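ok new one. same drill as before - structure tokens go in, u give me an amino acid for every spot. 267 of them this time. try not to just spam alanines like last time pls lmao
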């Protein structure tokens, strides 16, 4: 088992924002976490990667590859992030350093975790730009974040997250800030790169049709709790919790193609 989360509870003062959350993730498996805004999805993913605000109080257990992460210091988690665990954020413009060329940002984890010299790391960064489908990768690597489109910035974020070949990729609403056409391109890119790397994936979203196409299991969150955890097909065919049923009805009413995902034999 690559990741085991048990009884994860996150508080800000007296407010419980993640409430007794538990789930498992095998090597190579894909788990979707879905729910409305404020359900606790992002905070759960930030807890796994050790990026919760200092004001948060955390209880429970997060075991990654046999190691308890909640016992790690910030320095120890820094060595893990970008190396064994990569993360793609919702808004890449805020996640990227506006004062640093994107090639150097891709090169950073290679320098830190792989000990590569700058030239070798920059050469690899250019290769990664090409791998995530950016045109003229050498020119792209020399650009600053504000010179790129939203879709291009998200591809840079994916290149950074996958630079060191992580065992686990966490994608937190990676396409919600993109238009529909670019969203589809980025989703196909994530799907293909995760397959190539053999990485496990935690995919966080409020969009059930997107989660259904990207994952094998789904955790439905509401009010900080997981109200249903099931294989994706089982959830679509026969959701048990009333909130899961509500999500599926809403998806069916807004997206006719989504109906096909729940049909037996659909791949």
């Amino acid at each position: 088992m690559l990741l085991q989360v048990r009884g994860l509870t996150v508080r800000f003062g007296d407010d419980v924002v993640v409430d007794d959350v538990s789930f498992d993730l095998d090597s190579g498996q894909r788990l979707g976490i879905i729910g409305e805004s404020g359900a606790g999805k992002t905070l759960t993913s930030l807890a796994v990667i050790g990026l919760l605000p200092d004001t948060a109080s955390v209880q429970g257990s997060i075991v990654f590859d046999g190691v308890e992460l909640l016992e790690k210091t910030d320095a120890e988690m820094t060595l893990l992030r970008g190396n064994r665990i990569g993360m793609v954020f919702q808004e890449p413009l805020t996640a990227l350093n506006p004062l640093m060329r994107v090639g150097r940002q891709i090169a950073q984890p290679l320098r830190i975790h792989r000990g590569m010299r700058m030239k070798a790391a920059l050469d690899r960064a250019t290769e990664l730009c090409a791998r995530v489908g950016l045109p003229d990768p050498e020119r792209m690597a020399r650009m600053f974040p504000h010179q790129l489109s939203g879709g291009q910035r998200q591809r840079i974020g994916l290149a950074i997250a996958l630079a060191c070949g992580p065992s686990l990729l966490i994608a937190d609403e990676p396409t919600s800030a993109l238009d529909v056409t670019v969203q589809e391109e980025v989703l196909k890119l994530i799907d293909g790169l995760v397959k190539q790397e053999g990485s496990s994936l935690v995919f966080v979203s409020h969009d059930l049709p997107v989660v259904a196409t990207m994952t094998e299991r789904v955790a439905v969150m509401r009010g900080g709790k997981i109200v249903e955890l099931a294989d994706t097909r089982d959830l679509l065919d026969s959701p048990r919790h009333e909130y899961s049923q509500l999500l599926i009805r809403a998806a069916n009413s807004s997206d006719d193609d989504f109906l096909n995902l729940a049909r037996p034999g659909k791949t």
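The mean pLDDT is 92. and btw The beta strands are 3-12, 15-25, 30-34, 57-64, 67-68, 85-88, 168-172, 200-205, 217-222, 225-231.
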